[in-house]
Amino acid sequence: MTTIVEMPLRFDSAIKKIMDSRDEFSKKIKKSQIITYSVEFFHSCFLDDPKHMKAIHVRLYNLQQDQHPEISNYMISWEDVPRNDEEDWNAFQSRSNDQLEDFLSELNKHANVVEGSL
């Protein structure tokens, strides 16, 4: 059986930081049927530089709201990673990339996640 859902009616356009509302984010993950994410990378003028993640944008789709979906946007970025004063920029990028990769792997353990958009 196919259900047709009108998407833009309950769109929450405000992007919330995951670190600021971690409990709310966890509750919404459990209620969401579809979770998508997109990755933003640091840009470099050199092609041989390694790609490091800058931010992860997560969109949660809760489709059981009286046939009107609730769509929530969340974000986690390099700005959420504490930086040491003696740490150079390349080491910090590498460390923040590792933490963002850990976040993605943890998210994949708890939910079915799709990279890209719907």
Provide structural commentary.
The chain has helices at residues 22-31, 89-110, and strands at residues 11-17, 34-41, 53-62, 70-77, 113-115. It is an alpha/beta fold and 118 residues long. The chain has one domain (31-115). A five-stranded mixed β-sheet has the order 1-4-3-2-5, covered by helices on one side. β3 (53-62) and β4 (70-77) form a beta hairpin. It is elongated, with a radius of gyration of 16 Å. The two termini are 20 Å apart. The mean pLDDT is 84.
Topology:
Elements: E1 11-17, H1 22-31, E2 34-41, E3 53-62, E4 70-77, H2 89-110, E5 113-115
Parallel strand pairs: 1-4, 2-5
Antiparallel strand pairs: 2-3, 3-4
Tell me, rounded to a whole number, the average pLDDT: 84
Query: What value does the Rg take, in angstroms?
Result: 16 Å
Strand content: 25-35%
Q: Could you state the oligomeric state of the chains shown?
A: single chain
Structural class determined from secondary elements: alpha/beta
Largest beta-sheet details: 5 strands, mixed
Flag low-confidence runs.
none
Quick overview of this protein structure:
This protein is of the alpha/beta class and 118 residues long. The protein has one domain (31-115).
Quick tags:
5-stranded mixed sheet, 2 helices, 31% strand
